[in-house]
Amino acid sequence: MRGTIIKRSENSYRIKVSLGKDLTSGKYKAYFETVKGTKADSQRRLRELLTQLDKGIFIKPTKETLADYLNSWLKDYAKPNCAPRTFESYDMIVKLHLIPALGSISLLSLQPQDIQKYYAKALDSGRRDGRGGLSALTVRKHHRVLFEALRYGVKHEVIARNVAEAVDPPRAQVKEMQIWNAHEIERFLEKAKSTPYYALFHLNLFSGLRRSEILGLKWADMDFMFGQLSVNRALHQLKDGRYVFGAPKTAKGKRKVSLTPLSLEVMQEYYKEQKQLHDTLEIPFPDERLVFCHIEDGKPLRPNTITRAWTSIGEKAGLKHIRLHDCRHSHASLLLKQGVHPKIVSERLGHSSVQITLDTYSHVTPGLQAAAAKGFDEAFTSGYNDRRVPEVV
């Protein structure tokens, strides 16, 4: 028989399920489980186990907790397969949030309602400093990490299903994008001229590169003859202070970006200044040297130092505060308002698809839609004006 039920004591039954013959040893295997309850409860559980066997989704229960599993997932999958900064983010979410909240639950006992309750609590009082709840966007990041971890478990037959699929993460509120117009950018750069970061911020605003891509540029990536640069890598600083080079954020992140005439002029002048300074100090100036670095030893600039300089210059210029990353948004918005095709903007920014560009800058596209509609109407108006009314004979 495939399954049997044996009464052990009052309201206690032992289920035995045949798992077939072991191909290696030739011995028959069986799974045993004790059910506390009535005989009907044990019969119901036996049917569940036999159904799982028939569907090929039976997994022998273990005492492994979600904490044990998540730690193994971080070690065996996340660390070898994720970029260092991404792994740091996953590690923080798992160890500071998911494990304290859900880690004691048995991996095979985890239910959608357990996760849903955690999300609700995290939104209400999830901050570790005790000052309220986490944002919906942050909780969605927690959901993504847990979802990926459990999906890995399904793939490797550690669990039968990904219970996170049955959970609805909170909807993140879309914040209004903060950008600078051309006049504000000019005011910022005028104030930045007296700082060591003028060329860096000018290139950032006029190219739309990410901070990590700017800091990862080498002189070998600059092509002054053709007026373009190549994005080949990104530079990140880990929490332990180490600098690591990695691939750009998306598959299309490796790209060539044409420099504007103004940007080309600024970068050529910056190159001459750097070359002269290195010659004066008798410091080597190879093409593999970072474009923006400490001149004495060529070590990278700290990303946080760049961000603080950005904020400080913006305040001195009397401008509304926007993040350093928002200069990328400013660049894209100005291009779109100038009528540049979204596909070109997408390639310039290194987005994985043009749809991301359209979704991100939907606040700009209504104006483009209106202009397109007007242009289409004008084509017909022009056609009507060209017609000649036939003479009546």
Assigned CATH architecture of the largest domain: Orthogonal Bundle
How many separate domains? 3
What's the rounded overall pLDDT mean?
90
Fourth-tier CATH superfamily name of the largest domain? Intergrase catalytic core
Structure keywords:
393 residues, mainly alpha, DNA polymerase, domain 1, hpI Integrase, Chain A, 3-stranded antiparallel beta sheet, 14 helices, elongated
How would you concisely characterize the structure shown here?
With 393 residues, the chain is mostly helical. The protein has helices at 39-55, 66-81, 84-102, 112-125, 136-155, 182-192, 198-207, 211-215, 261-281, 303-316, 326-337, 342-349, 354-360, 365-386, and strands at 3-9, 12-21, 28-36, 222-223, 228-231, 234-237, 243-246, 255-258.
General description of the model:
- With 393 residues, the chain is mainly alpha-helical.
- The chain has helices at residues 39-55, 66-81, 84-102, 112-125, 136-155, 182-192, 198-207, 211-215, 261-281, 303-316, 326-337, 342-349, 354-360, 365-386; strands at residues 3-9, 12-21, 28-36, 222-223, 228-231, 234-237, 243-246, 255-258.
- The strands form three sheets. It has a three-stranded antiparallel sheet with strand order 1-2-3, with helices on one face.
- A hairpin with a 5-residue loop joins strand 6 (234-237) and strand 7.
- The longest helix has 22 residues, at 365-386.
- The protein is elongated.
